[in-house]
Amino acid sequence: MQKTDWTQLWLKYEKKRDFGNGAYVAKAALKGFSAENRVIAHALEELNNGIYGMLGVTVRMVSDPGEASLVLVNSNDRKKEGFSLREQEGVLTLSAADENGLLYGVFHLLRLIAMEKPLEGIRQVVDPDDPLRMYDHWDNMDGSIERGYSGESFFFRQDEILVNRRTRDYARFVASIGINGVVINNVNVKQAATWLITERYFKVLAALSEIFADYGIRLYLSLNYAAPLELGGPDSADPLNPEVRHWWERKMEEVFAEIPNLGGFLVKADSEGRPGPFTYGRTQAEGANMLADAVKPFGGIIIWRCFVYNCTQDWRDQKTDRARAGYDNFIAQDGDYRDNVILQIKNGPMDFQIREPVSPLLGGLRRTNQMLEVQVAQEYTGQQIDICYLIPLFKEVLDFHTCCGEVCDTVSDLISGRTYGNTNTGIAAVCNTGDDGNWTGNDLAAANFYGFGRLAFCHGLDPEEIAEEWIRLSLSNDADVVEKVKGILLGSRRTYEKYTCPLGIGWMVAPNTHYGCSVDGYEYSRWGTYHRADHLGLGVDRSSRGTGYAQQYHEPNASMYNEPETCPEELLLFFHHVPYTHRLKSGKTLIQHIYDTHFEGVAEVEEMIRVWESLEGKVPESAYRTVRERFDRQLYNAREWRDQVNSYFYRKSGIEDEQGREIY
Ligand code: GCW
Question: All domains of the chain, ordered by start, with CATH?
Answer without folding.
Answer: 21-126 (3.30.379.10), 132-462 (3.20.20.80), 498-540+577-653 (3.90.1330.10)
